[in-house]
Protein 1
Amino acid sequence: MPRIATPSSIADAPATTQPMLRAVEKQLGVVPNLFRMVANSPAALEGYLGMSGALAKGRLPAPTRERIALAVAEINGCSYCLSAHTYLGKNLAKLGDAEMIANRHGGSTDPKAAAAVRFAAKVAHARGHVGDEDLSAVRMAGYDDGEIIEIVQHVALNTWTNYINEVAGTEIDFPVVAARDAA
């Protein structure tokens, strides 16, 4: 049961967030519960959309971004985000089931992507306190400093969505996938 109210429609959301929610609807075809719930704070919604939009223009490909989202959602035990990113991974990034299972375990069947996902998982587990060997491993896989920064930002953004959904008790509006460690 949700612990923070989710406006039932765009019209029920604060007026200042309605144009942002319409933009989400135009892009995705729907407005997932996460966006409508975050719309309770116009500043938070603007910040989330701004960071998401900026990172979408980054150099990490969409499949790698989804892989990172799956790993971080599993680490943080967020079934909402795991459900959303399993759906997006399958339908938009075209990731297969075996790949998404590997992602949930902090890896990938793709060698280069595996390095990014392992690094992202290390950042999430260690709360940013990674070692020189962790940076060396992701660099050896072909990621430069700009891409490493993007990986860290994806971890941070996904951690934020994980936390906000867990605090809010956001109702899952995707096919449900439960996190292994979900309470």
Protein 2
Amino acid sequence: MGDLRVEELSAKTIVAANGLTLRPGQEQYVTPVSYSANDAYLNPTTTWARVVLDGDEVVGFVRGNFDPDNPREEFRSCVWRINVDAGAQGRGVGRFAVRELANEARTRGFETLHVIWEIGDDGPGDFFRRIGFVEVGETEYGEIIGKLAI
């Protein structure tokens, strides 16, 4: 990978972000049920969405949520969504995206970052564990809640 950077979504990048491809079998893990259920209650002012660029090419997307007043701890500072293009997976794009999100969380006064993932062979659990998330519980839907000290 060249020089990775994050940028806010724009008319130029949103189409590319929507066109990111996944490896076969990953589609079912893109949005955990818990996130879908909570989407209706998301406050747009607490959402942090960025594309990850390698040069001028959009290679990933990361969305976080920062809501210190959320009644559920795992939704106060969390990775809401992360997508890395199939051709860019395994090259540090996801790690970079989470690191940028963690930096933003720190600037907002958070000491941890959470993520929720579904269990499965092609799911993101191994990725999140590799970059330091520790399993701390389960949702009411049986998904894993991970926590990263930042």
Protein 3
Amino acid sequence: MMQAVTLTLSDEIFAFPTRILHEILEPVPVTRVPRAGSFATGLINVRGTVVPLTDLRVAFGMTSRPPDEHTRMLVLDVPVAGAETTVAVIADRVLDVTELDDAAVGEIPEVGMRWPPEFLSGIARTDQGFVIVPDLARIYAAALSEDSADFSFEKDPSSCV
């Protein structure tokens, strides 16, 4: 069983393991980074620590939408360039904390996927429908890749403050 926090991005349900979750914030001021791409749009201050703010909708080819009263920022520890790094992720809405049965997390189909399969760890079947379990290590590796035109992620975000 995996304890996970579920959230929505563009009306799709995603799940992150709670073991990587630091906290969930209401939107805070964002310092925009010059020449930043659409994936890592800026930096936020989390209890005195500079944290890059990222938008997973970019990685999944989803349309962005303006923040509303349900928008949240999840502060996570994710593997970035071989080290655990604290990042913030925008969520349209945080749903709840639930347990996902490992047996319910299935393989990623090769056909008919609208999400990049290389960015998925699996898809869980639940009573509410399908829950996407992203592969955050691969998403952030692609963001750091010099070959990636779709992402822009500062390797040293503190140098931009």
